[in-house]
Amino acid sequence: MERKRKLVCETFNIKKKREELKGPASDLNPSHSPYPDFTEDPQEAVPYLCALFPRKLFNDTLPPLCLKHQLYSLIQDRTAVDRLLSSLQQKGELCLVQAGFDSDTFLVVMDQDLRRTAMANCDGGSRAQVVSKFLESSLFSPSKISYCREEVMQKHRFSDREITQLVRAGLFTVRDAGSWWLSVPGAGKFTTQFIKGRKALLSQISRSRYKEVLLTELATRKSPPALRLGMEYHIHDIIGAGLVDCVPTASGALLRLSDT
Amino acid sequence: MLGLLWARLCGLDNPVRLRRAEATRRVLSLDLNKDRDVERLHENGINTLDIDPVEGRYMLSGGADGIIVLYDLANLTKSPSYTCKAICKVGKSHPDMHKFSVETVQWYPHDTGIFTSSSFDKTLKTWDTNSLQLAEVFHFEGTVYSHHMSPLATKHSLIAVGTKGPKVQLCDLNSGSCSHILQGHRGEVLAVRWSPRYDYILATASADSKVKLWDVRKATGCLMTLDRHNGEKSKSSSETINTAHNGRVNGLCFTSDGLHLLTVGTDDRMRLWNSASGVNTLVNYGKVCNDSRKSVKFTVSEGCSPDFVFVPCDGTIALYTIYSGEKISVLRGHYDNVDCCVFQPQLQELYSGGKDCNVLAWVPAVREPVPDEDSAKSGSNRHLNPAFEDAWSSSEEEG
């Protein structure tokens, strides 16, 4: 209703003083700030989520990763998120990487971090040369999420064996005959933990009464042992992926398992 | 509203503005109304609806039982309550009725004398409305999922047909035969749409999760395949792996100006594309439930100032703003899945049909009467000094 009214006002160009007065007040309301460190600034969202990533868990072999849909839980406007990510991608600051377990899920990783881990992972090995060749060449650009045969083999002179090396090094995963997804070396370890954690958290919610739980209560609860990536990381995941519905209540957001 | 009317009266605004504002208000207040009803003649789910583009008065509906019904939407009874009457129908007794479910019906764009219908019985039929006789039949090898005629073309009268086979066929009404075959898809073609801006531009959506844009004058292939990632700017090399959705694409709709194209797929997403460049505009509508195996008919509003899109979503119709992707409201009323909806642009009414055999009419709410004190005040004001109406109006405008 509120949104409707706002739209009507916009089109009629009605200057409502009352609404203007109400504006800042409603911002101060308990509206939503369960994440005290997060400052409503979309630019901050990616670093904020990356900071939640437990690097210690994987002995620093993985770059800080977050998922694209986790951003939707921080920023309400999904279109803004998509456009922001796309612009950052074009600027070359971050890469989107296909997560592998679900074709609509993307990992967000900083360009710098990806380069560093890729080099560290094959340090000294025979693949180091190929990997560095790939990362240095103009072929590798953060704005691409997949590469195809013509481009890789003809324009940039990678041989079949070199591509195999890249796949072994974990920088490529096969998408289709003659095309490859960009990937993060060692992302499998992350995915395993991630799926296990998501399942644990969802089962915890489904066991609570009416399959719903207050966000604040969930955050302070003792997390199940399978939740190795951290409670908040997973909460952002399930909200963003639409696995739970967010119902605003007087005492903060209520997460209810969505029925579909 | 008064302010707008006044500005219009003085000539401060151009006519479009008032119309837009009122149209927007009416679309936002769409709801079921006890005074408006549509006669119920279908015994099975309703797959498709179409309102004639000339007068906006007659509506066709096609049902899963093969029946086609023609409704009169105009209320000429002078009473507020009205049940849209069926004028005629192609029913069980008609010798030429479709044997199986009717998937698409469409009016001839320039006249209500002809309409076309396509069905799962592998035919596309052209009808004479006035005598309700069959005029022409086209036979196909597979079941027909959808067909469309260009809404503005005057130089050709081609009907694009999407069937179970991967080839899109163009049937020429002038000659009564298939004139073109467009090859490129790998799965069944679930939706076809002509651009409302250019005569020869056609969009097709298929179960192989691709959406292709064609210029039917170009013989070699499609213009482009839409790519949801839009990473590669250098096309042609990667054309084969470009997918618009991750799942079947079963709905297509151009915006009313033809500059953008909306697609829905079974990955529960809706996407907005720039129809000239094929770039994904990255508007994110969130989850748009869709698990239909057939094509989904959704529609856009016309002449509102943020334009809206109406999408069937399980048993409801969701209303989104097109360019910002905000979910404005959900229209609940059907008892079962909604399959189609169609917008009447002149009166801002929405008609929807679903598996529950009902056609529901969504009518703008009547404007609430002005609060008493206000009207009393203004009335007395006007009564006292009609000469100063001017001053009163401007003060009203500010407040």
Automatic annotation (TrEMBL), chain A:
Organism: Leptobrachium leishanense
This protein's name: Serine/threonine kinase 19
Family: Belongs to the STK19 family.
Gene Ontology terms describing biological process: positive regulation of Ras protein signal transduction
Residues that span the membrane, as ranges: none
InterPro entries: STK19-like
Automatic annotation (TrEMBL), chain B:
Any one Gene Ontology BP term: proteasome-mediated ubiquitin-dependent protein catabolic process
WD repeat ranges, renumbered to this chain: 39-81, 95-137, 182-217, 242-283, 331-362
GO cellular-component term (any): chromosome
Region (Disordered): 370-399
Subcellular location(s) per record: Chromosome; Nucleus matrix
Subunit record text: Part of the CSA complex (also named DCX(ERCC8) complex), a DCX E3 ubiquitin-protein ligase complex containing ERCC8, RBX1, DDB1 and CUL4A; the CSA complex interacts with RNA polymerase II; upon UV irradiation it interacts with the COP9 signalosome and preferentially with the hyperphosphorylated form of RNA polymerase II. Interacts with ERCC6/CSB (via CIM motif); promoting recruitment to lesion-stalled RNA polymerase II (Pol II). Interacts with KIAA1530/UVSSA. Interacts with a subunit of RNA polymerase II TFIIH.
Name assigned to this protein: DNA excision repair protein ERCC-8
Species of the source: Leptobrachium leishanense
